[in-house]
Amino acid sequence: MFYPLRQYLIFGLLFVSALFGRTAQANYWELSTGFNYNRSEYSAGSYSWTRRLGGSIGYNFSDSSTIEYSYQKSFERDHYEGFSDSFYNDEVFSVNFVWNIMGRTAPIQPYAKVGIGELNREATIYDSGKTQVQKINQMTGVLGAGLKLLFTKTLAFRIEGTSYLSGAKISSWKDNIGATFGISFYY
Question: pTM for the whole thing?
């Protein structure tokens, strides 16, 4: 985990380079980060929450085509008072092809992505006084779509929905869907 000073230093360098970097076009790099948090309260003492944090680095070899390496970390807790408590700690590493539908000069940039990666999951389940820990390391497919809103020529707000396909099977697209909100820097 980053120390607070390093986080501020990295964010500061990215922000300055986004303001004064080169404009978005072919043959440039893109650095993106995003997060999501949601919580549901079911009844007194029963709840569920999920936290996702991710980042990617991509090389744009044309105005509309990007190859990106992506990392996503998520943590989920499902607590049912007096019954069970579950913790899911996931990491997904993937390589994706991203198609920028409108190209990089458009102020609103919809995109779609497809890729392949690895899901590493550790699930800890406490149920009726018993603890069960399961670890899963499996191949996963990636399907996603998103929208970037350009603030400057080198900085964009990013909204993305992604489905991680269990075992890389298209039929599992509904099993692991998440949304993230973040920013993209173009170099």
Answer: 0.75
